[in-house]
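Below: protein 1.
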Amino acid sequence: MNKRKIALLAALAALAVWTASSRAPRAQNRVLANAFPAGLLLSPASCTTPEWPREARRYEVDGITVVHFQIGADGSIENPTIAKSSSWQLLDDAALRSLVKCKFKPGLDEAERNTYPIQFVWTLSGPAMIRPALVPASCKESGEFAGFEAFNRAPSGVDGVLVRFLVDPDGVPFGVKAEGGVGDASATRFIRSCKFALDPALPGEKTDTLYGRVLMKAR
């Protein structure tokens, strides 16, 4: 193994990290090119800083996306895959769109045979926002769903559906988005049957966003 390859492996063996805040100006967010060791990129300008999706900002969702990738003989990104989801497809997709634009120097020996990780950290800066809470016993009785658990961001599956939504001044959910699972449409209808409210006694800035899982009834 020659020195050039050893240097590459040592540089990328550790988890590269890119961090952004939804409320920070773009200039203050970390440039994606800086997540990689200097000298490995063909052009740092090719590694564009990921755009925090406008919809993700509106719904105030965050998380960590871990992507595994390989480097082709020509220096291009190959086989990028989501190794760990942020729970939100729009953030995962934004990470992939940005990463595949990166261009490493060609001819980095057998680098394309190795798989490397990079972690995209999507954070909501500032103090925690006060989000609406489910009004007890407000959801319509369902033969399919047992209820709603706020702030549970486990992936959609046979035991529940991950959703994010907004709440209007009357406590009615709208703009409900389900994160790809069995029963998305019915989970959306169930959430729309519920009522939510902000606790006026709680100090802090209020928001109209909420996320969690619609829980399936045990069968």
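Below: protein 2.
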Amino acid sequence: MLDIHKIKSRRLTANGVELHYREAGSTENPTIVLLHGYPSSSFMFRNIMEPLAESTHVLAFDMPGFGLSEAPPLDEFEYTFASIARTLQQALTQKGVQSYYLYMHDWGAIVGYLMALSAPEKVRGLVVQNGAAHAEGFGPDWDAPRAFWKNPTRENRAALGEWMNEEGVRNEYYAGLDDALAALVAPECWRYDWERLSRPGAIDRIFALYCDVGSHLERFEAISAYHREHQPPCLILWGRRDVFFEIDEISAYARELDPVESHVFDGGHFLLESHHRECSALIERFVAETAGRTSASVAGPMMRT
């Protein structure tokens, strides 16, 4: 009999899109849904799924247009985060998942919070890893994107520069890292991401999704209200060398959730490349300590590692 803790690669169709996903662990345990961001896929979770599967049911979907999931043309699928959230919610319904923890990285935070806002009763807790849901997380480097989202003129588009290219994808993994940390990043990660992004029409599809990031900023007040009203248990895992999101994001969570547990590591945006053992151990304990609760978070001070 196949070990239930091993990662299985599977497919299903939801919202008209064929999704690839990875699954591990027993459905009798609490479910954690791992949400990737740009430009990655469920592959980024390869090192934490089996350790987590010892005590949780783990699901990691490739979002539409990413990884090994179907990438419908722009005229056949609405490339917005709301559409992706609906797609994943349908997938979870098909899987019979009634409640879940959300692990949110990068754009995964946008999708995850749309899921939480639409069905807060299903969310058992949040694991936030270098993903922003407050103004504090978006520093001055986001001024040009903010201007573009507000007014998408040709001039504002040009001010964004060119970053959806091979060097830009590589930079997602290595930016801010010294040689010692860079050596811990598996190079096949960014090469795989770029291979998927370099498919015909892929950049146009993902850029359409990028254009929708502005809608996430407009939901900050709603997200803060969700935090204050529902007080979901929250674990923050942060790579301090992240050059995309500001570490001040952590204090914004602490302002709204009481308590919130935070761990800051000497890592980058893709923290799991360098600290997957530490992160999986913390997530496992977090789920174990909060699985019986619905509105109170794990007690404990903010910690830095």
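The chain has a mean pLDDT of 95.
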